[in-house]
Amino acid sequence: MQQALKIFAIVMAVLFAWAAYVQINDPDSGIWIAVYGAAALGSLLFALGKLPSWLGLIMGIAFLAGAFLSWPDTYEGVRFGERKMANLNIELGRESLGLGITALIFFLYSWRSRGRRIS
Questions:
Q1: For position 102, what pLDDT does the model report?
Q2: What is the distance between the alpha carbons of residues 30 and 35, in angstroms, rounded to a whole number?
Q3: pLDDT computed for residue 60 by the predictor
Q4: What does each C-alpha distance from 99 to 1, 48, 52, 118 come to in angstroms?
Q5: pLDDT tens, residue order, the chain (119 aa)
Q6: Half-sphere exposure of 90 (CA within 13 A, CB side)
Q7: Under a CB-based contact definition with an 8 Å cutoff, are residues 29 and 95 in contact?
């Protein structure tokens, strides 16, 4: 199980790094590059056994707070597969969903890191 979770964390680190990279042309790219860059770094630290449980928890809470703050006034879905922004509510829905998924991943990292000695 631990090996599978390590592989999962490595895959997530690559996916988060890719998510940060594709934000380059986004109007608010700095925020999203920082968010997904931090998630990539956190996933890499977890895979290496260097992510303290408390840090994973704090990151998870921050991502969850971001998900709630990004939630649109009127939810209109997320419409996957579109390359451009259909409207602000759909864009906010996508951002909120991404942050929510990231929060769940970091809560998992925190839970699995409990009691692990960080050297």
A1: 97
A2: 9
A3: 97
A4: 25, 23, 20, 26
A5: 588 999 999 999 999 999 999 888 878 889 999 999 999 999 999 999 999 999 999 999 999 999 999 888 776 666 666 566 667 767 777 788 999 999 999 999 999 988 666 55
A6: 11
A7: no
- Taking the CA atoms of the chain, what radius of gyration do you get in angstroms? 15
Three-state DSSP class for residue 40: helix
| Predicted structure pTM score | 0.85
- Contact present, 42 and 59 (Cβ < 8 Å): yes
Give, in order, the Cα–Cα distances in Å from 77 to each of 9, 35, 69, 91.
Answer: 28, 22, 17, 9
Written as one letter, the residue type at 70 is S
16 with 39: CB under 8 angstroms? yes
- Helices of type H across the chain: 2-21, 29-47, 53-70, 88-113
Q: How far are the Cα atoms of 60, 100, 118 from residue 42, in angstroms, in the given order?
A: 10, 16, 14
